[in-house]
Amino acid sequence: MRDWSGEIEFIRMRTHRAGTPSFRRELRAGSFLLLCPEIAVPAAEFQALPPWEQQAIRAFAVGLGSRKAVLVGKSAARLHGIPVLGNREPATVVLPGGGRPPVKQWPACVQYRRALLPEEQVMEVNGVRVTRIMRTVADVCRYHGLVDGIVAFDHVLTLPTMSRGRADALLGDLGRMRGLGTARRALSLADGRAESPLESWARAQILTADLPEVTSVEPQVPVLGGSRRVDLMVNGFLVVETDGELKYDGSTGVAPTEQMRRDRERDRELSNAGIPRMHVTYGDLANVVKGESRFIRMLRETLQAHARRAA
């Protein structure tokens, strides 16, 4: 789990500092941001972070400010470093014992779920109580569905101590719970070869869509004699490349201009080899009309056009 307390200052509102007139003035002036009733952070530092890190810090703040609550689902996943979809969900918590607290105790930034949560499925890291990894991913599947679960399990299968067999055994150790079948299905469709959440999301959408045109979808397929790899290969001929902002922000260790040069060079080589491809953005995956994303509509039209040409 990433230790956010070492990267941004968390100010507990019940401490002496938070009660001083100078701090109150700074809070009113917007120099500090109240993430939950118990925790404030420097506003400029927080707002400079990308949305997914802001969500993780919000969840961390809720956990830090609570004595009993346990972060679950996407909130726990973010603190474990497991990629999840979306950047606007409230911090989600469960109280051990399944009791429901008075509604007034829970602000809009916190979502409470009633669930049976044995203590052996809970861990504490950096002062925050969260569910253990397998319970976390199972809850992501149970609360948010198959697509979200595939994205999470893709990452879990890359962990050094994890294998598909071990993940399946750990799911079994959770005991009986509603929605566990969705978690098992997500694990069966997960693939540790995926190299980005966007790639996992695109593949998960294909796997769960009504697309009789699709006969196969494989991640990280070598092409051009093995000199290059592509994000996804559909039906053995159509390349799907997922284009996200993350690889152009320098966080991968490659300068943005160099990354763009590499991508252009690879695209040129694929064009010269006559390999058909689609470029897919976050917007294509997130834009949903009548239960279907723009990406799935584009993919269906592309495959149907190819079938007509081949007829």
Automatic annotation (TrEMBL):
<feature type="compositionally biased region" description="Basic and acidic residues">
    <location>
        <begin position="259"/>
        <end position="269"/>
    </location>
</feature>
<protein>
    <recommendedName>
        <fullName>DUF559 domain-containing protein</fullName>
    </recommendedName>
</protein>
<feature type="region of interest" description="Disordered">
    <location>
        <begin position="249"/>
        <end position="269"/>
    </location>
</feature>
